[in-house]
Amino acid sequence: MWKKVIKSYDYSLIAAFFLLCLFGLMMIYSASSVTAVQRYEVASDYFYNKQKIHVIIASLFFIGAAIFPYKAYKNSKFLLIIVAGIAGLLGMLMFFGTISNNARSWIRLGGASLQPSEFAKLVIIIYMSAIYAKKQKYINSFNKGVTPPVILLVLLCMLIAAEPDFGTAFIIFLIGCTIIVSSGMKFKSMWKLVVLGMMIALILSPLILFKKDQIFTEEKLSRITGYLDPFEHEKGDGYHLVNSYLAIGSGGVTGTGLGQSVQKLGYLPEPHTDFIMAVIAEELGVLGVVIVIGGLSFIVLKGVYTSIKCSDPFGAMLSVGISSMIAIQSSINLGGVVGLLPITGVTLPFISYGGTSLILLAISLGILVNISMFVKYEKLYKK
Fold it and tell me: Membrane-spanning residues where (predicted)?
């Protein structure tokens, strides 16, 4: 049996994970070496060494998730534990959260840091997929089938937006929407949700106006002005985006060469996190861009293909949710780097520096690999 299981794994998907992580590790070393010394006053390989540990830990989680049967996640007790756990972590932010980039979104214990909102993405994917899979018989019943998962989705988004972290809240909301669309729900039921959402927004509008100074802070508004006309504000709000343009334009087709970026020398404030794609484009040109976008697209398309082939509604929705998470996060990051979207601080999956994000993505992709294995196993050996 184990030989059949091993043969059923999609090794191209496994290879894509490790290759993207290793490529990201290489680019983090290149992008962060100067910033580490000049801005943070640490060794040039500081972020590289930390990310190396992150990659090792994430790889262990990836292997564990790829082996563990995904159907066990549908267990009611497990769902209760993860929902209660993420709600507790988000609640802890109010008392123990550390402010970073004007958002209370980190819990720091000793030398370790945890961003609970990252894990909320996977929690909402598992929870909504499990509940809608169990409620297939009455998926279009508004009270029994449609509403319960949406309530949790809205509450989580509100908790994360209150940090305030609107970028992550928006990503989670979009992920939830993709699961709703793929749940088998009829258009009429989805339209009722849209109307309900508009009514809730209307009810909350006075509160938003009352708290507008806290919600629409000067920094958040500066991201909009910098996005709309970066060159008009090139020494202020548009500084990040202008230097991203310069990095991408300098790279051209062939790039300036690995390690030869000029914009990472203090011009791009976050060259190893939010704007790592700009450094990749500058140093490696079109080839570097194709490697990253090609690898991410391959994972997303594999996830969509797996969802189509999966006969289990839970596995199909899990695949859609994981694929959409990677696609949405990648699109928001890349859109910010090239000026198609406002800069939100969202990192590039598998490439940018960050432990919490990488571990979350590793677990998610491991689950996708496990679903893919079950789909192939049933196709080959259960005819």
Answer: 52-71, 78-99, 119-134, 146-162, 168-186, 193-210, 275-301, 313-332, 352-375
